Amino acid sequence: MVVIAPYELDAAIAALRAGDVIGLPTETVYGLAGDASNPDAVARIYAIKGRPATHPVIVHLADGGQVSRWAREVPASAEALAAAFWPGPLTLVLPRHASVLDTITGGQDTVALRVPAHPIAAAVLRAFDGGLAAPSANRYGRVSPTTAAHVREDLGAAVAIVLDGGPCDVGLESTIVACLDGRVTLLRPGRITVPALEAAVGPLAESQADAPRVPGSIVSHYAPRTPVEIVPVQAVVAALSAHVDAGRRVAVLAPDRVSDARALTWMDAAAEPEAYGQSLYANLRTLDRSGADVLLVADPPTGPAWAAVRDRLTRAAAH
Ligand code: TXA
Ligand code: MG
């Protein structure tokens, strides 16, 4: 089991109370966490990430009982989703409480809330007894970190404390759902699938043109530095040949059964969506470091369980 030593917890809480930020493991990805009610702490998060100030951040809470401190209204749909999936990889977008900082909401009338399940995140939140703003602990526009080492790689000396909770279980950012104006809308796919959400609250609404902004969804987010090309699995070897013939070095993420020695690196693509998602960002980092000119990725299967993986891959390829 993943545990945190008492002295580490004390140091983390002292840093958070002083308005500092820490690297925090969650079950989805590592977060860069700071006191959500301290403007200096929130400003520090934005500065370290290099993130535009108009992008809202998720507030992490110890339990659902704290939601009313952050949301002025908790619709029945949100209650049902929280009961079904918290603690866990689900973020709810709700009407904001008047006291929430504009820098948290990006100036919108809504706030994003999540109760994470990771034992270290849970222990820190319980001891802190407040909301922690925590975007993924990567520099703006890059692949999210799924290990403490990734956080250090990305943010280095800018963050003194990075709690090590081991590799993240889910590996992809949380499912984001808006419960607003009597509608339940999916804003970002994640481990919790549409069928699972619908089992809890009934059919979701179609995304509206006036749906809340999810700036993390802009194209070219989650991108490695090397261009990504997605091809059908049966076309991987042909695409590899074409690149190699043209003098390009190629790294591949595809099932091992079609492996080809001309690839610089070949990462085996998991056959199950959970395992694929858990390893995706670490795999993209490895491929990115291989010195390849292009990253070839076999198109993963379709269906609700693959939606989050497909979403992140599409963004990674949309350079
Ligand atoms: O799994 C996760 O959600 C991770 C871990 C650390 O909890 N956090 C994460 O945060 O992915 P970040 O900042 O990288 O992405 C948060 C997303 C962004 O796309 C942001 O635009 C959206 O949540 N968001 C935050 N507040 C929102 C709001 N009020 N309305 C709509 N979208 C919001
Ligand atoms: Mg992010």
Describe it:
There is one protein chain. By secondary structure, this protein is α/β, with parallel strands linked by helices. The chain has 2 domains: 196 residues, Alpha-Beta Complex (DHBP synthase), CATH 3.90.870; 91 residues, Rossmann fold (3-Layer(aba) Sandwich), CATH 3.40.50.11030. 32% of the residues lie in helices and 17% in strands. The protein contains 10 helices and 12 strands. The strands form 2 sheets. Strands 1-2-6-3-5-4-7-8 form an 8-stranded mixed sheet, with helices on both faces. A hairpin with a 2-residue loop joins β7 and β8. The radius of gyration is 20 Å and the shape is globular. The two termini are 39 Å apart. It binds threonylcarbamoyladenylate and magnesium ion (MG). Magnesium ion binds next to loops.
